[in-house]
Amino acid sequence: MSAITLGAVRPRFRPRRISPARWGLYAFILITALYFLLPLYVMIVTSLKPMAEIRQGHLLALPASPSLAAWVKAWTSACTGLTCEGIRTGFFNSLRILLPSVVISIVVGSLTGYALSLWRVRGANILFGAMMIVAFIPYQVFIYPLVRVFSFTGLGQSLATIVTIHTIFGLPTMTLLFRNYFASLPVELFKAARIDGAGFYQIYARIMMPMATPMIVVAVILQTTGIWNDFILGLVFAGRDNLPMTVQLNNIVNSTQGERAYNVDMAATLLTALLPLVIYFGSGRWFVRGIAAGAVKG
Amino acid sequence: MRLSLTSRLSVLSALLPALMVMLVVYIGATSWTAWMSLTNSRMLPNNNFVGFRQYQLLFSNDRWLTSVHNIVVYGVLFVSLALLIGFLLAVAIDQRVRAEDTIRSIYLYPYSMSFVVTGLVWQWLLNPTLGVQYVLRSWGFAGASFDWIVRPETAIYCLVIAGVWQASGLVMAIMLAGLRGIDDEIWKAARVDGLPKWRVYISIIIPMMGASFATAAVLLSTAVVRLYDLSVSMTNGGPGIASEVPAKFVMDHLFERANIGLATAAATTMLVTVIAVVAPYLYWRARKGEVR
């Protein structure tokens, strides 16, 4: 996929002087950039204002005396229905879901991709093709049967269930990612290892995975943002005690009775968006690579 | 080279999870859902075959018809607007602008956020007493009115606004890669011919970017079918049932309204629609010989 090289090539020519068209171009970029930044700006300034200021003041105005009170409240004592323990429960739940899900889905996906790319298995292409097709199918088709299967196995709604679910639904993309990567490596490497007598898992663990570090980084970024941002799977499969942060955020905001504490709501929203934003701004081009790799399934 | 027995067993063990997922989750669950849609299951699944009655009920159900109407409106507007805006952003960035990396980051950051966050943010911005309408009025546009989110006829357009905000950056990234992949010779030839830049884009560049457009369109379309979180967090399907969507219809009938037969009929309808759209695309890709 050409998208892998996103932005790697420098553009072609620089105009000699600033023409009216050039001004138009910068105006367009400025206006669109403001449109994209507006929601983030509003969230940040509102979360720093007390409610009285929000009621009387202006949506876009900077806070008169910025305060982190709403952030503290969102973290420690915002209410979801009956309990008022803040969004931190959701944060730690999401973390507990995230870590095993990311590790397991990458191990399973890379192993599958490795077996499908380097080992000539009969029916490998059929299996792979089928996996790519199901990546398009809406979750609604699978959800109820899976609920039944998990309650039948006794796992019900639990941490183990949601981790399994994330592994299952991450499998097509992870397989694709690693299959294409391993297929692009020089095959002599693999053959030499075979001749030296290395077995299937030895080649995987000692040679292939150490070489796949860039793909592992991409996979971690892709899975972390995807799993952290998931709503529907966590809602259905995690169970009441493990509800992820996105579900809890929606409960905090949309189940409020009476006047809404907008500052607390926006602080909670920012807290939920924080991890993906940190990953996005921290990882730079890697995030784009992740999108491009995930985009290939499309 | 022929594989030894241990090698074969190793390969098989590595592929076991994928095979299990394929058989149990994909084939098993899909057929079970399809079968349930032919029964009169309510709160618990049963095997009383009723033919296509659930489908008759489904297509005379107001809420489902509204959902379908909404997803068509959303799908058409969301995909075309995101493609248009994403392409324009990519073209703008491709003019060798200053601070390219920063601008690109700004366009793309919404894509890192969840639909729940996106929905909540736009719910506030579009709230008439607090958001954009209030700001316009306070700037002196006393008659300014932007209350789409509380009006049934227009609520679905609010989901489009939020969705486009979230996804345009993705299109921009794909399109920019496509633009950067175009040979410089084409630009030189066009300049020699004295073609204005906009003509080059319309007559030469866009036709060459079919693959980028297809990739972006398919990615956006899968997001359309999965549209659920945004509707839940932004409007919860409201006002009334004005912004209901098919995925939400299925979820509500499975878990709140205890009507498995109807819910699975709706899910199966979604499945058939997706296959009808995706199959030609995958065929087209296979024909092009892309081994992906």
UniProtKB/TrEMBL annotation, chain A:
The answer, when asked if Transmembrane helix is one of the entry's keywords, is yes
Task: Tell me the ranges covered by the ABC transmembrane type-1 domain, including all copies.
Answer: 91-283
Which InterPro entries does UniProt cross-reference here? MetI-like, MetI-like_sf
Gene3D superfamilies cross-referenced by the UniProt entry: MetI-like
Pfam families, A to Z: BPD_transp_1
Q: Which UniProt keywords apply?
A: Membrane, Transmembrane, Transmembrane helix, Transport
The record gives the membrane topology as: Multi-pass membrane protein
Q: Does the keyword Hydrolase apply?
A: no
| GO terms for cellular component | plasma membrane
What are the transmembrane regions? 23-44, 97-119, 126-147, 159-182, 203-222, 266-288
Q: What is its main location?
A: membrane
Per UniProt, subcellular location reads as: Cell membrane
Q: Which GO terms describe its biological process?
A: transmembrane transport
**Similarity field:** Belongs to the binding-protein-dependent transport system permease family.
Q: What is this protein called?
A: Sugar ABC transporter permease
Q: Which organism is it from?
A: Bradyrhizobium manausense
Automatic annotation (TrEMBL), chain B:
Q: Where in the cell is it found?
A: Cell membrane
- TM spans (from-to): 12-35, 71-94, 106-125, 154-179, 200-225, 260-284
GO BP field: transmembrane transport
Coiled-coil annotation reads none
Q: What is the membrane topology noted in the UniProt record heading this document?
A: Multi-pass membrane protein
| Pfam families attached to this UniProt entry | BPD_transp_1
User: Which PANTHER family is this protein grouped with?
Assistant: ABC TRANSPORTER PERMEASE PROTEIN
Identify this protein by name: Sugar ABC transporter permease
Identify the species of origin. Answer: Bradyrhizobium manausense
